[in-house]
Fold this sequence. Notes:
Distance between the termini of chain A: 22 Å
Strand content of chain B: under 5%
Low-confidence stretches of chain B: none
Oligomer: heterotrimer
Low-confidence stretches of chain A: 1-16, 543-555
Number of helices of chain B: 13
CATH topology of the domain at 290-376 and 447-553 in chain A: Rossmann fold
Order of helices and strands of chain B: HHHHHHHHHHHHH
Mean pLDDT of chain B: 82
Number of domains of chain B: 1
Shape of chain B: flat
Radius of gyration of chain A: 25 Å
CATH architecture of chain B: Orthogonal Bundle
Largest sheet of chain A: 6 strands, mixed
CATH architecture of the domain at 290-376 and 447-553 in chain A: 3-Layer(aba) Sandwich
CATH class of chain B: Mainly Alpha
Strand content of chain A: 15-25%
CATH topology of chain B: MetI-like fold
CATH superfamily of the domain at 290-376 and 447-553 in chain A: P-loop containing nucleotide triphosphate hydrolases
Structural class of chain A: alpha/beta
Number of strands of chain A: 20
Mean pLDDT of chain A: 84
CATH superfamily of chain B: MetI-like
Amino acid sequence: MTGYSRQNESTGTGWTENVLRVEGLTVIGRPSDVEIISDVSLTVNRGEILGLVGESGSGKTTLGLSLLRHLKRATQITEGRVWVGERELASLNEQQVRNLRGRAVAYIPQSPASALNPALRLGTQLTEALHDDTSTSDQVAERVREVLREVALPDDPAFLRRYPHQLSGGQQQRVAIAMAFVGRPDLIVLDEPTTGLDVTTQAHVLETIKAMTREYGTAGVYISHDMAVVADLADDIAVMYQGELVEHGRTEQVLSAPRHEYTRRLLMAVPLLRTSGHTEPATRTEEPLLRIFELSAGYGRTRVLEGIDLSVSRGECVALLGESGSGKTTLSRSVAGLHHQFEGGLVFDGQALAGTSYRRTAEQRRRIQYVFQNPYEALNPRKRVRDQILGPYRHLVGRPDDPDLVVAQALERAALPASYGERFPEQLSGGERQRVCIARAVATRPDLLVCDEITSALDVSVQAEIVKLLRSLQDDGMALLFVTHNIALVSNIADRVAVLNKGRIVEYGPVGQVMSAPEHEYTRALIADTPDFELSFPGAPERLSMDSEGRVTDG
Amino acid sequence: MTRLIVVRLFFGALTLWAVSLVVFAATQALPGDAAQLILGRDATPERLAALRDQLNLHEPVAVQYMQWLQGVVQGDLGTSFSNRMPVGEYLASPIRSSLTLMGLAALVATPLALFIGAFSALRRDRGFDHGASMGTLVLASIPEFVVGILLILLLGPGGLGLFPSVYAREGGPEQWTLPVLTLALAVAPPIIRMMRATMIEVLESEYVQQARLKGLSERTVLWRHAAPNAIGPVAQVVALQLAWLAGGVVAIEFLFNFPGVGKVLMDAIENRDVPLIQAVVLLIAGIYILVNLLADAIGLAANPKVRVANR
Amino acid sequence: MSGASTNTSPKTPVRRRPGLLRTAWRFGRTKVGVALTGLIVLIAVVGPFVAPYTPTEFVTKPFEADADGALFGGDNRGRDVFTRFLWGGWTLLLLAGASAGIGVAAGTVVGIIAGYRRGWVDDVLMRVNDVLLAFPQLIAALLVMSIIGPKVWLIVAVIAVSHMPRVARVIREATRKVIEQDYVKAAEAIGLPRWKIMAVEILPNVTSPLLVELGLRLTYSIGVVAVLGFLGMGLQPPTADWGLMINENRQGIAVQPWAVALPVAAIAVLTVGANLITDGLSRAAIGIDRGVEK
């Protein structure tokens, strides 16, 4: 193994302070014998958090679970040892493993919605985490209430009688954290615990985790794909790539001098939250391409959007920033004619747009194209890329003289070789799929591209490439309505930004102004809560920005 | 939850009403009218007219339907054409026999099926599991009357001669063996498969993994965390299978000459005994709908989301 | 042209996953199922041409077990059991195949429309479905047969109608899953006509459950056609039909078991074979569905 060397001796702590020690751990999958993690060694000190970073499929979850001596079906440890405190996990019998779990090592799952038992009340699930405790039931109940207060949840009996589905996502995650800390473990494994939470909730949850580990002196292993979160939270960073630990060191050290090329790439791909240095967009006098005024929309009787005013000019990128439930997708779908329960005005190039796409002219439909969030669901799995692109073209433009040329040009604009036309979606990676979706959208030469969270389902390195591609499309004169929850991304790509909160636009203006001098409290909170970090190695500050020539290397 | 159940009950009643409509309409399609059917081909016109009067056959169809439905609701199912007995009275004994037969079959099949299914799940991908999976697959595919005949060929007088193949009034309890066994074999496979699939799904769920990672004992994991989540879907399948019995019993009773409602139905069809056909079909459909409703209610009750939401 | 024929690409593309049929074929049980089904189909199709007698010819005494020139003896009227066995299969296959095919086709159309259009269309279709589902399959068939009389087209129609709501329910669920996918919304955004969305975007993506349903319904159809014959409500004498043969000869099961055993064995083998294929298909479908998810 090349990537790893023991760097944390510089911290001056000896072995006794290591709560967790992993040596040469190798896990293979059965029956294929493929190594899921290979020869991984690491240590974590008391009261510190190790950030374990990797993209999907890097083996980080397998590693995390092996710290509780839990293996998924059809996997096997072939080599290596894991010590938690003085205990070597492989030597424990079943009873000892049970004693270890929950008391010495606790686990916080990725999705509490599926990890909390839907059929059991919270009280039961919290209490049973203290399973081998010698204390009386009163003491247990007191301990449960105490830990609930610590994670800022109500501790009254009514709350304990609730079922998991009666809580919000953030509350569920807090319950999971409480459940992990209730037994005062020495080590806690957190598997992407903030995935699916919005920024504000994420900030609160991370704050809780940080405070709890400090207070209890618990060591933490924080598994994540999000470098920004880890940089914010962790004392040490370990980077996994294809089952190997390619980097391990103190956080400052990794951020200032990453040793491995992959780490460098990962760091550079994370969009930096730019709060200054924006160029003021030119004031435009001509009629905007798309004008939304006094729009309100809903589903049945529930209102989702209220009084939306927004405009997009030619060649301009307007970002629609909002957290889940803010109504941003409803707004973008109304523009695309996919959501028609709205009142108010939609004017495109001087003409009113009908509510549903079926009552718009073919020309209007051609000129507004939509790219969906999840590329795994946006392509018909039964059609070749070629037909995915030609279908809309034939319907909106007409039968092409040279279909091959249409496909080749569309793919080229999405930076894919023409040969991809013959492939089926299942033969493409996530990033390639999203490029095909973009190719399908630009094939008809639209004037406005509505992008709905198009990078959120992709790994960061791929995300950066897609953003680069969008920027080049914009340079060609296409207007973008870029819908996202990622404020850092907005600060790098948008000309103007509208901040959406609970169905209303709370702030709207040039991106430089909004980022540097936010007027609304909500925007300020968003900027403050977004985890961010400074990179100090050469070339790093220009990671991803409007001005630089996309220095992101392609993956 | 009560609201949801009331809605289902309403739709169940609506369905039952639609079924009654279909049953009544179907019998209207018979060639000739009821009087003709009762009196036979060589009845005198006077007697026909008299009987038509008596049966209200000169009334419009809608009125006849209302009168019939009114009777049904009050428990008066009319008089059998073939034996001149009130249908309700005539059916009492067959219903008892059929219910006993179905009850016995369910009693034999359900616990055994649940056990085999759960055991298969725990021994997933091992010998027992493969054997059970193959066995249920074969049993589930063969029509139940064929299973019955195979059992007769094997255990009946022609084969090992252990049990009688035909039910006789004076026979002993051993003549119940083959019909019960046949029905039990027909009912069990889906329950086994559902039990196995549900157990596997629950055992692989993240909340069971989380319970294990909390260090709970395997017993607690199984009974406190897995079982409550498996009850709903399995109970539903059990109920559906019981509902299936209501219809499946016909061919089996015919095969074994068992004096239940299925046999009555076949005889009634032979004799073109319309009130009897109507009554039996309505009865079977009624049981079927009722047990399906029960399955629905169980499914709802087992789901805490529903249970808590609309209290 | 195959999916992997993009030689000009810089990277060699990932091989396409094998389709449903090919995946299903990999299971041993599918092969066994095809063999069993094939055997019975062969008997049913070739049988009439190689039968030693005509199916209505009187050859033996009634229920004569070992008569000269009759391999499996005679039936209740003294006709050659083997001949009637060879003749009695194709009607069953034809009726079962036709009713399963029509039922699945109708159910698919209803299911896709109900799943895609939602709203009142969905409500009405599903309510009608519920009423149809309230009849146990066999009871519905018996009711209709007893009133109108056993006719071939009626057998097919009744079984097809009883399949329809069950298929519709499955296909509706599958459609619901498909229309949550964004490619359907993408087609709506460009204003593709609804019928075309159903035909081009939805139908090809519900083929897995569709094939599984077809197999399942075929198995059930065989059972229902056979049981109708057995109850004397299917094809009428003197037709040679497996179900009817069982009915006619069950009185003599102790003295002349062959007359019952042969058709019973054929029906059992056929249904087991069909269900093995169905099981292979559904296992393949589950595997494929898992692969698509992200």
